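From the methods appendix. Each design record in this collection lists the tokenized structure first, followed by the designed amino acid sequence. Records were kept in a plain field format so they could be parsed without special tools. The example shown here is representative of the layout used throughout.

RECORD:
FOLD TOKENS (96 positions):
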């Protein structure tokens, strides 16, 4: 039996009907529409779609931040801290 990761993520972004409550940043998003969830900063990029195959890891993460480009510098700094990369280091390596 599969652990249900994809089903859980699809429920969070309202791609499938779910029961219960879904919270994001302490807000109930259970009844929010998908575009409203994305505006809050939560998005799903399904693996294996090969949409942006030529982008670096950093560029892929920046695509996820497109909705908040004004705050991108803060997000970028957090991203580097999370991935322990330097601006000229591993985070810019091309994905395999």
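DESIGN:
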């Amino acid at each position: 039996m599969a652990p249900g990761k994809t089903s859980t993520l699809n429920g969070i972004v309202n791609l499938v009907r779910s029961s219960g409550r879904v919270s994001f940043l302490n807000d109930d998003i259970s009844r929010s529409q998908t575009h409203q969830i994305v505006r809050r900063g939560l998005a799903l990029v399904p693996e294996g779609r090969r949409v942006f195959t030529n982008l670096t890891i950093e560029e892929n993460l920046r695509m996820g931040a497109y909705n908040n480009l004004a705050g991108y510098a803060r997000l970028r700094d957090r991203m580097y801290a999370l991935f322990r990369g330097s601006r000229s280091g591993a985070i810019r390596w091309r994905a395999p």
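APPENDIX NOTE: The chain has two domains: 1-44, 50-96.
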